[in-house]
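Support reply, case 0932

Customer input (verbatim):
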Amino acid sequence: MRIEGYEDLGGPLVAGEPLTARPGFWSNQLLGLCARGPGGEPEWFGDDGADADAMSDVLWNPEGRPVFRVPLANGHGIAVIYRNIVGDYGIDYVATCPGGHHAQQFATWEGDLVGDTVTWPELVRIAADTPSAPADGFTDPAARLLLLLPLLRDPAPPTEASTYLTTVLITAGAPQHTAPATAGHLLDHASAAVWHDPTWPSPLSGGTSPVRPTGSGLLTRLGVIPVVPTRDRA
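Our regenerated output:
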């Protein structure tokens, strides 16, 4: 696999979508977002420690970089890439264009998010914007939402977000009795992020701001009609 415009270093890019069905994936993807809460553990996502460790070995194996693709209805998409280069580990978020040209990295995760973010309505909009024709990557809205959840920064997510996220977590294998609390931890992380002046430059262009404010324009660049949250409508 090749994504033109994405830095071609390290091992080959490989399709990662099958890994999401294996035990340990979602705890690896999301447990870091629960770090502000006490007692975060893989069991919150239906995994155990051994599952999580085994999946971590797969995701961070430098012989291949797993790519998780989120195709959009207009041919654009988002690729989530585990950058398992020795000495330079992280997760990159890359916007892709129809035909595979001019891909652009817009965010990265290295213990916290650096780059562009989305609000809750924007996240739900992307998750639901599935192509009508067959496409490589995830078409299940629940998996799409969870995969892109680290991009969420919303100081006041709508009241229905907790119930919606709880349902999505249960669909992905989280225990019913702990899923509401797990959803709460994930939304707390998204709403507790530090906010910055939108005129500050992005670190991906040489600046120093950790994240761009919500409503960063990502949907516009992807060709998706932006969502105006209900609370902001006249």
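We compared this against your earlier run and they match. Two observations from our side: The helical segments are 25-30, 49-59, 120-128, 141-148, 160-171, 179-191, 218-221. The first helix runs from residue 25 to 30. Please reopen the case if you see a mismatch on your end.
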